């Protein structure tokens, strides 16, 4: 498992998957290994340009097994949400992210994904007081992380904080943090992933007047 994580962190997905497969063979009740196996299976499908809109989607079976073994694994739930989103099963993806948000106590990653998918599925954002409290907590976490030297979890900490500022109506900070996220990105796909995520908010654009400026900025920076 440790070797698989090391290989995963280096982007060696084929080799990482071999280690995770071996881990679940040795220990069939090892939920974390099933989680990592599912993530690797989906990453490889993306890398090899395989069809992602299948049932089950690549990696889905492994992640559902991980959740069966540990229903409180918010990372497995969030990863399942990502797989379902890429499979364009948006209602199911929204449900997975909502469950991950609940289990994690409002972790920024599933929280923000749940909000974007709500906007896409329901065609409105309609933030509740509970949503705004969760966003305040997420903002505090991401502000600490972006302020570290070097920043922690960049560029995602910057992109998450940018999105939170968008929800707060702070257009200036939204655009500034997008630029910072691009600055700390090592690969084009990171900015492209954030851009694709922001586009999920377009059905709720009436509630987010600064959204289009951010999309246009990312288009120009990535073009």
Describe the structure.
With 223 residues, the chain is an all-alpha fold. The chain has two domains: 1-105, Serine Threonine Protein Phosphatase 5, Tetratricopeptide repeat; 128-223, no CATH class. It is built from twelve helices and no strands. Helix 1 packs antiparallel against helix 2. The longest helix is centred in the middle third of the chain and has 19 residues, at 129-147. It is globular and about 50 Å long. The termini are far apart. The mean pLDDT is 96.
Major pleated sheet: none
Strand content: under 5%
- So, the CATH homologous superfamily of the largest domain? Tetratricopeptide repeat domain
- Summed over residues and divided by their number, the pLDDT gives a mean of 96
Number of strands: 0
Question: Would you give the CATH topology of the largest domain?
Answer: Serine Threonine Protein Phosphatase 5, Tetratricopeptide repeat
Low-confidence stretches: none
Query: What is the architecture of the largest domain at the second tier of CATH?
Result: Alpha Horseshoe
The Cα radius of gyration reads 18 Å
What's the number of helices?
A: 12
Instruction: Bin the helical content.
Output: over 70%
| Count of individual domains | 2
What is the CATH C level class of the largest domain, in words? Mainly Alpha
Q: Give the overall shape, derived from the CA principal axes.
A: globular
**H-E order:** HHHHHHHHHHHH
From the N-terminal CA to the C-terminal CA, the straight-line distance is 39 Å
Structural class: mainly alpha
């Amino acid at each position: 498992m440790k070797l698989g994580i090391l290989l995963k962190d280096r982007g060696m997905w084929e080799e990482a998957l071999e280690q995770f497969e071996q881990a679940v063979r040795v220990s069939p009740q090892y939920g974390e290994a099933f989680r990592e196996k599912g993530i690797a299976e989906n990453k490889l499908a993306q890398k090899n340009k395989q069809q992602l809109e299948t049932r089950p989607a690549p990696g889905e079976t492994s992640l559902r097994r991980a959740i069966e073994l540990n229903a409180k694994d918010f990372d497995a739930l969030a990863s399942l949400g990502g797989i379902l989103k890429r499979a364009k099963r948006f209602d199911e993806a929204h449900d997975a992210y909502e469950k991950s948000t609940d289990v994690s106590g409002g972790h920024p990653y599933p929280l923000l994904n749940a909000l974007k998918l709500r906007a896409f599925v329901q065609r409105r954002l309609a933030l509740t007081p509970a949503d705004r409290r969760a966003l305040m907590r997420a903002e505090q976490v991401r502000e600490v992380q972006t302020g570290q030297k070097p920043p922690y979890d960049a560029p995602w900490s910057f992109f998450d904080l940018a999105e939170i500022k968008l929800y707060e109506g702070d257009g200036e900070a939204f655009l500034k943090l997008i630029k910072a996220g691009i600055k700390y990105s090592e690969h084009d796909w990171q900015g492209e992933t954030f851009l694709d995520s922001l586009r999920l908010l377009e059905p709720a654009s009436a509630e987010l007047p600064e959204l289009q400026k951010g999309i246009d900025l990312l288009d120009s920076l990535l073009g």
